Amino acid sequence: MLKEFKDFIAKGNVMDMAVGIIIGAAFTAIVKSMVDDLINPIIGLFLGGVDFTNNFIVLSGDGDYASLAEAREAGAAAFAYGSFFMAIINFLIIALVVFMLVRYVNKAKDAAKKEEAAVEAPAAPVGPTELDVLLEIRDSLKK
C-alpha cells in the first residue's frame, strides 16, 4: 500500500496539479490586490466613492442600524443586497483583468512561436533542386 501511495504521489499529474494550485493561490492574491488597490479606487473616483456594501434591509426586529456590520453584530437578520452587488461587480472586474492577462500571455506565446518558426525555417536550397536536375536529365534524354 505504501508503494502504491509513493507511485501515486510521484506521478506527474499529481505534482502538476499541486504546482497549479500553489501558483493559482499566488495569482489570486496578485489579481485581488490589483482589483482592490488599483482598479476599485479609480472606479470609486469616477463614481464619487460609491460603495454598496452597507446597503441592506433588516428582516427581523425594529433596530435602526448604521451599518451592516452593526446589524450583524446585534444578531439581526439582514438582507445584504449591497454586499452581493459589490461581489458581482468585483467578480466582473476580476474576470476582465484575468481575461486581459491571459490574452496578453497568449499573444506573447504566439509571437515567440512565430520567431521560433522563422528561425527554424530551412533556407531555400542553393542551386538546382532534385526535381530541376531530374527534369534536365529527362529533357536531355529526349534529345
Question: What's this, in brief?
Answer:
With 143 residues, the protein is mostly helical. 72% of the residues lie in helices and 3% in strands.
Description:
With 143 residues, the chain is mainly α. It has two domains: 50 residues; 72 residues, no CATH class. Helices cover 72% and strands 3% of the residues. The chain contains five helices and two strands, in the order H-H-E-H-E-H-H. A two-stranded antiparallel sheet has the order 1-2. Helix 2 crosses helix 4. It is elongated, with a radius of gyration of 32 Å.
- Strand order within the widest beta sheet: 1-2
Strand content: under 5%
Q: Report the C-alpha radius of gyration, rounded.
A: 32 Å
Span of the ends, CA to CA: 81 Å
How are the SSEs placed, and which strands pair?
Elements: H1 2-10, H2 12-46, E1 57-58, H3 68-73, E2 78-79, H4 81-120, H5 130-142
Antiparallel strand pairs: 1-2
Helix pairs in contact: 2-4
